[in-house]
């Protein structure tokens, strides 16, 4: 990613506070020699009322400070605090101007809240704020993401509250002086649907506002600005030939929905096909739904890489003209210097993932080249990617031995920090008519660890394709005792050396019921997990002592750099500001040229601004530790072992992920240091209820 910062960059207050301004001598409060023009005048033309903030170098007076009877309305300290405010109600507008005989300019300013108004020295250059004032951009407008154009929205909670999310405004609240509401009551627009055609953030709060326009012209009076969180996705009627699939998080909150259609489908017709007491979803439907879900979730921070067998069975029973739901999970972060290669099977489910991170990878940069519609990938990257894929797919039952021309093109056009999907081929032999293929699956990733073909060898009573492995009695599915013993043994043998096993090394009752319903000539999935040979261990940290009330649980991460970013808006001379959102790994990967530009821009920030950024990155790293196998090592120990090795083991000292610290030296140059927090094991306790261990650490921060 190429990052360019203009020399005239101005950073919004919400992100960075205010830029430092050199001091100017203060004119006398009552000067008889400084005679004013007959009257002040309003700001007009290019100097029309403008939004301003304070430098903190001059006070606010009831009259121009050179006038008799002028007294201080707000001192310099108060104005400095107002300049740092995180509320747009503390925005100010300069309305009138007055020029003294000596050329000094004074401006009448008014707070959007109405709490303050008065006069302040503004320098000596007409058309340019100085002295106690500087121009302030209250709202930073951006272009809405393209994926939002696919959706329509409604006001989530119609009413008349003036809270930013209930009614619409002529401009985002408190960003344009006296702009006011567009509508004062949104109840009559409860059923109106809108498109988002504008977006931006308020400088002080950093909250996202959107401009909405009604689909129906009769509702156009409500067109205006509203907080993005004040909207909900509108739902069009479900077509008779469509199944609406709601994509929800673990708490049931709607993230997105899709309408999966079939040309010949009829209302109330099931999506799948029933077979005895179970349901089957066709591979074509499963593959198409998987892709549709993946596309709908782009940009939401959620994913569903693999639709499970249970979810597929649930969808198979769902009927056209109605709705079903799938639970999605938070997407894992992609390092800024890597391309995530998701390897998928014939139904587009992810079977494994490779993060390809060559040494020269830059965030936002293409992995290959793309010129005149022709994408290419150099031989070095092709060979490295091919090798990484082969390693990942070893013993998986899949292979991708030769990248196709289309796959090479897809890789070349993928940017660092984003993902690409490549299809792998199954290496499995066809399932025999008298066999059930049992896939042992890691439930957290959906990855198949091992597969076995459980074969019926009874020559007197051979299994027929489509019949079930078990039997049903009194409405319950049962697996024969002999089958249970043999499958337990085959599972142990197959999974040996993989680091996985059946829970308690035995099929659970639920797994036995699942296998009993499995049909000969087809496959079934059984979840397996990693062994835990001791009690579970929880890690905690405190900044004081083991008995501190501030003790918090530590969480592991596999990332070297903290998974956090900061958005640096560049609004210097541009009517449409661009944003450079840099994560810690992005900053660490900047080229020498980009790093120099970055430091040059940072040199313009005030000390408070740098403190704000530093605090944000550090907070993101707090109570995290880089797990290089320490957790697994702890889970193989017991209470006595932890006590005896509290100060001498690999887990005795842990490190947080790296986070950047920005400081400015006496010459105004920026220095970036990479810092970590160190956790030192201090004590261990055992929970009497579940025998779990709690190891407490103290924290040292650089």
Automatic annotation (TrEMBL):
Protein name: Surface layer protein SlpB
């Amino acid at each position: 990613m190429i990052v360019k910062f203009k020399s005239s960059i101005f950073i919004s207050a919400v992100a960075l506070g205010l830029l430092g301004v050199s001091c100017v001598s203060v004119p006398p409060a009552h000067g008889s020699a400084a005679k004013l023009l007959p009257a002040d005048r309003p700001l007009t033309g290019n100097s029309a009322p403008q939004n301003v903030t304070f430098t903190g170098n001059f006070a606010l007076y009831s009259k121009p400070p050179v006038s008799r009877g002028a007294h201080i309305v707000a001192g310099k300290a108060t104005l400095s605090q107002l300049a740092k405010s995180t509320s747009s109600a503390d925005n100010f507008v300069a309305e009138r101007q007055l020029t003294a005989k000596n050329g000094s300019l004074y401006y009448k300013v008014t707070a959007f809240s109405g709490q303050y108004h008065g006069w302040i020295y503004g320098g000596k250059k007409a058309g340019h704020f100085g002295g106690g004032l500087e121009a302030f951009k209250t709202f930073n407008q951006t272009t809405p993401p393209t994926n939002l154009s696919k959706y329509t929205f409604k006001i989530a909670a119609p009413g008349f509250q003036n809270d930013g999310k209930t009614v619409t405004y002529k401009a985002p609240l408190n960003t344009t002086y006296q702009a006011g509401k567009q509508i004062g009551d949104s109840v009559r627009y409860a059923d109106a649907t809108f498109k988002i055609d504008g977006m931006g953030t308020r400088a002080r709060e950093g909250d996202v506002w959107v401009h909405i326009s009604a689909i129906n012209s009769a509702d156009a009076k409500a067109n205006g600005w509203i907080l993005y969180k004040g909207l909900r996705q509108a739902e069009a009627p479900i077509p008779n030939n469509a199944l609406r699939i709601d994509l929800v998080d673990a708490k049931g909150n709607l993230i997105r929905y899709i309408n999966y259609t079939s040309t010949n489908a009829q209302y109330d017709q099931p999506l799948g096909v029933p077979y005895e007491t179970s349901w089957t979803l066709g591979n074509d439907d499963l593959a198409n739904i998987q892709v549709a879900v993946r596309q709908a979730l782009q940009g939401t921070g959620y994913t569903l890489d693999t639709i499970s067998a249970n979810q597929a069975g649930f969808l198979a029973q769902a009927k056209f003209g109605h709705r079903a739901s799938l639970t999605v999970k938070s997407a894992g972060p992609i390092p800024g210097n890597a391309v995530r290669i998701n390897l998928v099977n014939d139904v587009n489910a992810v079977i494994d993932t490779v993060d390809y991170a060559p040494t020269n990878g830059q965030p936002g940069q293409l992995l290959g080249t793309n010129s005149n519609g022709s994408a290419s990938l150099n031989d070095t990257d092709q060979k490295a990617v091919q090798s990484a894929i082969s390693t990942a797919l070893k013993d998986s039952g899949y292979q991708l031995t030769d990248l196709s021309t289309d796959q090479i093109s897809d890789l070349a056009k993928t940017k660092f920090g984003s993902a690409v999907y490549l299809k792998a081929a199954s290496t499995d032999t066809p399932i025999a008519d008298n066999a059930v293929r049992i896939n042992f699956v890691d439930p957290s990733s959906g990855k198949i660890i091992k597969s076995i073909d459980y074969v019926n060898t009874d020559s007197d009573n051979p299994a027929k394709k489509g019949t079930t492995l078990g039997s049903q009695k009194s409405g319950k599915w049962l697996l024969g005792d002999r089958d249970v013993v043999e499958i337990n043994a085959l599972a142990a043998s197959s999974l040996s050396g993989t680091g996985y096993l059946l829970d308690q090394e035995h099929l659970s009752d639920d797994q036995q019921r699942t296998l009993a319903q499995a049909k000969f000539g087809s496959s079934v999935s059984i979840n397996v997990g990693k062994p835990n040979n001791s009690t579970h261990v929880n890690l905690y940290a405190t900044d004081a002592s083991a008995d501190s009330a501030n003790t918090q649980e530590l969480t592991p991460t596999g990332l070297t750099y903290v998974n956090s970013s900061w958005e640096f808006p560049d609004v210097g001379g541009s009517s449409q500001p661009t944003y450079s959102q840099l994560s810690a790994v992005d900053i660490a990967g900047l080229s020498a040229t980009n790093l120099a530009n970055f430091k040059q821009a940072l040199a313009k920030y005030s000390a408070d601004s740098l403190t704000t950024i530093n605090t944000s990155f550090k907070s993101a790293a707090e109570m995290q530790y880089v797990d290089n196998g320490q957790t697994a090592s702890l889970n193989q120990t017991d209470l006595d072992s932890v006590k005896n090795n509290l100060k001498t083991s690999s887990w005795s000292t842990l490190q947080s992920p790296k986070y950047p610290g920005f400081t400015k030296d006496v010459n105004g140059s920026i220095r970036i240091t990479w810092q970590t927090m160190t956790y030192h094991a201090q004590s261990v306790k055992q929970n009497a209820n579940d025998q779990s261990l709690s190891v407490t650490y103290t924290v040292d921060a650089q």
